[in-house]
Every structure is written in structure tokens, then in C-alpha cells.
Amino acid sequence: EPQPEKPQAEKPGLIGRLLGRDENTRVVDDAMLESLEELLIQSDMGVETSLKVTANIAEGRMGRRVTTSEIKGALAAEVARIMEPVARPLPLYPQKPQVVLVVGVNGSGKTTTIGKLASQFKAAGKNVVIAAGDTFRAAAVEQLQVWGKRAGVPVLTAAEGSDPASLAFDALTRAQAEGADLLMIDTAGRLQNRADLMEELAKIVRVLRKVDPSAPHNTLLVLDATTGQNALTQVEIFRKIADVSGLVMTKLDGTARGGVLVALADKFGLPIHAIGVGEQIDDLAPFDPEDFAKALVG
Ligand code: GDP
């Protein structure tokens, strides 16, 4: 079965677009640096990060003739340097069960990511339980059940419209009794009523702590990389309403420019635990800063 072509691989990266694909030389001057800055901003790297990265590349090169590969290498190194500290897989703690609260706006890929993570941990020999905490969206619960089946992991549900915190309490109690290693809790993602969502998440956390004072051990924010600068706003909002401990960036397989990851890393420094690279169960990869930098810059 041939794999569908990944458009990203064929498209020139940032420097390809700036200086052409072929090896070339040119003088580093204000015009070139301005074009570079503009490209970085267009790639969703954000103004501040783009200015900083451009300044670092200019350093010691002003007025000098450089090769395309030197600029590519310099930019890739800058990006990798920003990304290295945030490239960290989801830490596994000795606490049993480790409770992972999964937050994010609807459509960001929460359900899919939970399914993929469940499958990975299951394959690693972990005993995983999922709780369908978005009790107000029947479609979300059904979708999670589909993923649970695919991953071979039980999905605990509650009656439509019932209190998510009560489901979280039951789920943790049961996961504890069964000696589960990992409990992943899906949550609602309607930002329309932020105060409600904040209260809902706070209540889930309060109730979890009655069962295990150290829970939740992780609060994963799932972000759709194709939303560009919106992802930055979502981090700001979710950090106010939940104690976000790390990120999963989804939809990095498409034509997403990916620059927003650099802006996120530079601005918030939150770990990127994994990236979504497709809609299938195996399409979750560890975040590799060097590969990412090379693909972005290319
Ligand atoms: P939720 O509303 O946050 O639970 O989002 P879903 O998990 O239902 O995902 C929304 C849509 O995005 C679905 O069509 C998924 O198949 C798709 N999706 C999720 N992750 C990825 C990814 O990494 N790559 C691609 N191409 N699609 C994704």
C-alpha cells in the first residue's frame, strides 16, 4: 500500500523560499535580513521570536558573503536551540495510576490524541483507562469509545449531561482498584463560556485530589498546529483555566507551517510531549527538534 504523499516534504522550507533551492551565495545585508524576518513571521514564528532569531543569524555575518547552506544551517541551529529544551516525552511517574487530564478546544484533536497515546502506552505494557469527561457531547463520547476499541483500552462513560467531576471521581477510584498504570481523562473544549469551563475543570481537579492528592499528574493541552497564531492565544487562555503541564501539537502532517511551535517554545517553554502526524492510531510521534528544524528550514 503506497503511503499518501506528504506535501510538506516536497515544499521548500523557509530558506528554500528565501534563497532558492539551489546552492548559492549572497551578501548578508539589511534587505536580506528583512526578507528573512518577514518569512519567519509568515511562518507563524511570532514577531518577537522572529526578530530575535534574525538578529542571532546576522551576528558576525553582516556584509559577509555566505552560502545558502550556511544560512540554512544557522537557522536550523537557532530553531533547534529553542526547541531542544521543550522536546520531552510524557514523563511516566511511579504513582499508580498516573492521572493525565487532557484539555483543549473542540476539534484540536483531543480524542484522537487520547486514542493514540492509549495505544502507545498499551503497547508498552501499561494498563490504561480512559474517562470520557466531555459528558455534554454525545458525539465526543462515541468517538472516544471508537478509539478505545481500536487501542484495546476501556473507556468509562457517564450519562449524557452528567457531572464530569463525578465521572472523574468514579474513574480514578476504579482505575486505582484495578491497579491501572494510567488514567487519561478527556474534558470539554467549549471556550464560549470560559468561566463555566474553568469551574468544570477546577471541580474535576478538586474531586480527583480527594482520591489522590497528587492528581492530576499531567495536564496536557492539545493544540492544532494549523491554527497558527491562535495556538498561542489558546495556551494563554488554558494556562489561566488549568495548570497546563505540557503540549501535544496535532496536524503537523498537513501543510501547517509549524513556525508556531517555535513561538510557543520561545514564549512559554512548555514541554512538547508528542506531535500528531496523521489521523491513524500510529500517527503520534515524539517531537524531534533537529528533524523539525531541518524540515522547517529546508
Ligand atoms: P477533539 O474535538 O479535540 O476531540 O478533536 P478530534 O480528536 O475529534 O479531531 C478533530 C479532527 O482532527 C478529526 O477529523 C481528526 O481525525 C483530525 N486529527 C486529529 N489529529 C490529527 C493529526 O495529527 N493529523 C491530521 N491530519 N488530522 C488530525
TrEMBL record:
EC number(s) from the headed UniProt entry: 3.6.5.4
Gene field: ftsY
Protein name: Signal recognition particle receptor FtsY
CDD domains: FtsY (cd17874)
Function: Involved in targeting and insertion of nascent membrane proteins into the cytoplasmic membrane. Acts as a receptor for the complex formed by the signal recognition particle (SRP) and the ribosome-nascent chain (RNC). Interaction with SRP-RNC leads to the transfer of the RNC complex to the Sec translocase for insertion into the membrane, the hydrolysis of GTP by both Ffh and FtsY, and the dissociation of the SRP-FtsY complex into the individual components.
Ranges that cross the membrane: none
Domain Signal recognition particle SRP54 helical bundle stretches: 10-83
Catalyzed reaction equations: GTP + H2O = GDP + phosphate + H(+)
